[in-house]
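Structure ticket #2291
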Amino acid sequence: MRIVPALPRWSADGPRPQRRRKYRNTGFDPTIHEPSHPLRAGTSRAPEHLADSPLGPGARKNGFTICPGPLLCLANGRPGRRAQPTRRMLANIVIDYFLKGGPIMYPILVVAIVAVCVVGERAFWWWRLAMRRDPQTLEKVLAAMEAGDFKAGSALAKDSEDPVVRIIWHGLNHYEHASLQGALQVAAGIELQKAGRFLTIMDTLVTLAPLLGLLGTVTGLMGSFRAIGGEELAVQKITGGIGEALIATMCGLAIAIISLVPFNFFTSKTARLQFELETAATNVEVMVNAARQKGLETPAYGREGNHNAG
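Resolution: structure written out below.
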């Protein structure tokens, strides 16, 4: 329901002439649809309950009445509803382009899904690793090792989630044995394997996606040339083949470009982590060798020194 201004009920000069031109060809008659209209009531003077108005009997009233929306539309001479223009949704556009890209779009879609999954998994893994880094504990462990207290350093590094601290802990567990260097290499290899997970797959996707797009280009152009070589020149087939070639090429290049940026980022992060692990392993070896020369908290070195002294 809508509130709209009503027609003038009455005036000092009697009933106002009805403006029927406004309602021409609409099927609306104000004398029928308004029960209190002066012409329908058969009166030519103002209503009695407004005769003693403060403005006098000649006052003019503009009232309000409530009428349905469709009735108002008829009174204004326009239809009740306007046809809304149809808008194509983004999903419909994507599906339309996918179908026009030809059968090569299905392997390209698989490559795109794998790329999204790998990039998401690697991003989450590196974010979680950044949350687990513990530079304070690393400083304490290195300080304890520099002081020659390897047992205290091992106790501080135990149960740490920082990969650099973990490799130091593995080295401190073998500081009394000749397998120190091997333990550090194994621990560093495990950490690097976790960091470089799926990088080979991302490298393959970066190379495979544009090749699939190029294959779609070739197949689309072949379809266009087949249409040209036919008896009747089908313009729709020719343009469809060219469109298939362009869509496949665009999708393949887009996947390769989008995957190349995170691949290089994750590769650089892995190289930086490798440098930190190598630095930590070198520090452990240097400090253990220094302790070997001094014979601090190394029973094996102490026994070796006593044997040489004897």
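Closing remark: Residues 7-11, 37-46, 58-69, 299-310 have pLDDT under 50 and may be disordered.
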